[in-house]
């Protein structure tokens, strides 16, 4: 007979935290969000081979995790998993770009030619969010540098028709430039000495190599949590599937990837067990591979026993996900996280091995992150959250007068990542499990992550916790009624200014 869970499953929005005692020592400055990413023998006093400084990773999705977002997130202390629904070469190239990125040196891939118009500059500024555009002879990233045009060189609201870029740009002869190979601190000295906002770096043929921005140098100085490997390169992850891993994994390892994740909507399968076994046998146990997704104890135990280095939880809770609607499988994300966390602790008690768990999908409000951690997650994976930022790979558009970014599911027709839903056999997936959508544009990743982290840290202090393990031990969680949820927003008043809620 079928098994019935007697209780309904619940999601984050149905829970609240009850504060615990806050001592005078329990202040935001004392809180650490450092968290393990990969399994380790905790009982033997081992340290995990990879940890993060904030408990946030970005989703394995075309519309979320490319090299640009990966760099921005590593600067904040988290990890991106670069999407696997692209060719092996393209994915490896993205990983390589993160690993070869020199903090402070920006490769400008949205340039313009001198004979193009100011209208085209405005379009580019709006599309990319960059206020400085390099002018190269052929408009390419590595073309011959002809000048620089910024939004301060003309009135963006009064663009004269058919004006040429060459008439408004600062021409090459008037630019301060750095030679290829210049150090960041020398570039910064030039910027300050000549009172310029950016320094184009050029090769011996005057071709553009990169740009150094005054603001980026400042920001490099102010990223105390940035996540670096032992060679001072940013840490980056990548998604893989259960079909082409014997080719994809070595290419990603060659490119310098730090961690892999089997990306599937349903991970309690022989395919994942085989992939974990093959990868560890062929490439060694030092190659770290997360697996998932699962939503119960059995699923977790299966993946942990088959060597998963972390386990990802969640089916059907993603914002763009229609899996529950299409197939009727899934579970409330809170219930799934709580059960898998118990299984993780049971496995640890039995083996001494701590296998980190990641709650994936369905994070709508910042406090949902704190709830997921309190329920036992070691970190969370977010798609919609990161899709809203400047650094995500998608276009910024204006819809009904509001800035939005595009965001689509891996199981949508647009992504066509049917491997994520692979059940083996020959027949491909014939229906969608995700939608194509817009999300409100929210600005820079740095500003948003700083705000989110601040909220998590303050709530942890309210619960008397200075670390994630302490939160998991001390948290008191309560299920709440719909009336209590309604009471949680401003009510019975006319709100004047909504910005305080963001
Ligand atoms: P979000 O943070 O709520 O937007 O959820 C992101 C998560 O949704 C991802 O990490 C995936 O686990 C999942 N996901 C991505 N694409 C799809 C899809 O097309 N259908 C169902 N789930 C998806």
Automatic annotation (TrEMBL):
Catalyzed reactions per annotation: IMP + NAD(+) + H2O = XMP + NADH + H(+)
Q: Mind telling me which InterPro entries this protein's record contains? A: Aldolase_TIM, CBS_dom, CBS_dom_sf, IMP_DH, IMP_DH/GMP_Rdtase_CS, IMP_DH_GMPRt
Please provide the record's keywords in A-Z order: CBS domain, GMP biosynthesis, Metal-binding, NAD, Oxidoreductase, Potassium, Purine biosynthesis
E.C. number:
1.1.1.205
High-level lineage = Bacteria, Pseudomonadati, Spirochaetota, Spirochaetia, Spirochaetales
Name-wise, this protein is IMP dehydrogenase
The UniProt annotation places K(+) binding at: 316, 318, 321
Example GO biological process: GMP biosynthetic process
A Gene Ontology molecular function term for this protein is:
metal ion binding
Statement: the UniProt record of this protein carries the keyword Ribosomal protein: no
Extract the signal peptide range. Answer: none
Origin organism is Treponema peruense
Under the heading SUPFAM superfamilies, the entry gives: CBS-domain pair, Inosine monophosphate dehydrogenase (IMPDH)
